[in-house]
Amino acid sequence: MDEIQLGALHLGDIDTVQLLTPDGARLSDSRYDAWVADVGDEQLLALYEDMVVIRRIDTEATALQRQGELGLWPPLLGQEAAQVGSGRALRSDDFVFSSYRENGVAYCRGADLTDLVRVWRGTTASGWDPYAINMATPQVIIGAQTLHATGYAIGIQNDGSDAVAVAYFGDGATSEGDVTEAMIFAATYSAPVIFFCQNNQWAISEPVTLQAQRPVAERAPGFGIPSVRVDGNDVLAVMAVTRLALDRARGGGGPTFIEAVTYRMGPHTTADDPTRYREASEVESWRAKDPIARLAAYLTERGLMTDERSEAVSAKADAVAAELRAGCIALPDPEPMAVFDHVYSTSHTGLSRQRDHYSRYLRTFVGEDTTPSQALREHDRLDQDRLGHQDRKVS
């Protein structure tokens, strides 16, 4: 870790870059101050608004899931600074490869709000057009996106562009073979890729201390990749280290590994109950390091956080949440036979046979003269009747 010097804060036994303390005090760091010297008052306020808005998106989507409008949702509560600080450092021609939790990054990249929930509502197998916002759709297979990012970065290199690929993943992914393979290839070819690890302390119910006996950032130098550990709840520090890594990649310096130390305040997904495996006192200790409250304190101390500004940000967040909810509920159910679309670039006899079998299966519920959608609705109604009958028998 010689090439990128680490900063001032000491967490555990490795220095961690920090420019804003939890109570909002601005620290000076000779290595990183220059990388955020251009961040003026309006940009600071914009970063604050971004974090408030994506937290509101997150809470609204969680509510939608609890109300039965989404099948699942992966909350990002507590990780807003890591996602906004890095996401706003990127250029439009950089390409992002994320896991399923980077909805804040997707917002920064310009993803349509409704596109954030399509896959979780079950109306599509994807979400947005990757090439419209230069961000691949979320990867559910843990760590696989690091290989995609490295491959894309090598393509960038071959094209002679100075764009950068960025892979987002959690601390749990660093135990996957895909991440190891990606770092080997990235180091070997000096690929312009950033490995951005959001260490939120828990891989579902497994604490990071169980799988990483040393700080996660210490793994990358073994592959020949410089790394840096940053306070992931400090939006300014995250932006600084990301900008430095981007500059290094654009100049031919190769990959960088960033470990953003943050905390997942909520469950792993809405199907998870974190109270079963972590103490309330731990959550409260991290609540005191909240990324939004931290920046708000700094803005208040500088006289920038007025009542009018705060109200305007809250109004923007509420409007975004309302748009998200309306877009989610208005999503139409896909046609049943659409499940066969886009499986292959061209159809073949095997796919045609499956399509025919499924179509004939659906028609058994109502008859030959109905559409597949009507047949599927009748299928679902009969299925619900069957389940209700079973429930009555049990009761």
TrEMBL record:
CDD domains: TPP_E1_PDC_ADC_BCADC (cd02000). One of its GO terms (biological process) is branched-chain amino acid catabolic process. Residues 51-319 form the Dehydrogenase E1 component domain. It comes from Leifsonia tongyongensis. Residues 376-395 have a biased composition (Basic and acidic residues). Residues 372-395 are annotated as: Disordered. It holds the Pfam family E1_dh. NCBIfam families: PDH_E1_alph_x. Coiled coil: none annotated. The keyword Oxidoreductase applies. This is Pyruvate dehydrogenase (Acetyl-transferring) E1 component subunit alpha. It comes from the Bacteria. Its cofactor is thiamine diphosphate. GO terms for molecular function: magnesium ion binding; oxidoreductase activity, acting on the aldehyde or oxo group of donors, disulfide as acceptor. InterPro entries: Alpha-ketoacid_DH_E1_comp, DH_E1, PdhA/BkdA, THDP-binding. Keywords: Oxidoreductase, Pyruvate, Thiamine pyrophosphate.
